[in-house]
Write a structure and sequence with these properties.
With about 140 residues, this protein is an alpha+beta fold. It has a domain of about 70 residues: Roll (Surface presentation of antigens (SPOA)), CATH 2.30.330.10. About 15% of the residues lie in helices and about 20% in strands. The chain is built from 4 helices and 4 strands; from the N terminus they run ααβαβββα. It has a 4-stranded antiparallel β-sheet, with no helix packed on it. It is elongated, with a radius of gyration of 31 Å. About 0% of the residues are buried.
């Protein structure tokens, strides 16, 4: 017991035996018992969960990543390695098709590409519902 061969773990009993044991309390010392009592939690307010007020205000200034995806494609590594400045990568969407807008990786809306000053932008044309995502 307690012996082990190279590369084999100790048994649970050996490990427990090797663990330090708590020292006994001093004579006459009695460990105080913790008071345990139930705690009544306030009920959830459905209006707050729906975003009408309450703690939802705390989330309104949180930044989340928003990504516009023009389209996608699949390429072989050899094709990717042949890309040079001026190469054209054809995407799976047609010109004029809606662009997908993702919030934290989840499809949230669709829209059309616009130019805002010197930058690209997305004009939202549709907020995607849960039914649209599932279907």
């Amino acid at each position: 017991m307690g012996s082990e061969t190279a590369g084999q773990p100790q048994s649970v009993n050996d490990t427990a035996a090797a663990a330090p044991k708590p020292e006994p309390a001093a004579p006459g010392y009695e460990r105080p018992k913790a008071a345990v009592r139930p705690h009544d939690l306030a009920p959830l307010n459905p209006a707050s969960a729906a975003g009408e007020a309450g703690n939802m205000d705390l989330l309104l200034d949180v930044s989340v990543p928003v990504v516009a995806q023009l389209g996608s494609t699949e390429m072989r590594i050899r094709e990717i390695l042949r890309l040079t400045p001026g190469s054209v990568v054809a995407l799976d969407k047609l010109a004029g098709e809606p662009v997908d807008l993702f919030v934290r990786g989840q499809l949230f809306a669709q829209g059309e590409v616009v130019i805002v000053d010197e930058s690209f932008g997305i004009r939202v044309t549709k907020i995607v519902s849960r039914n649209d995502k599932e279907g």
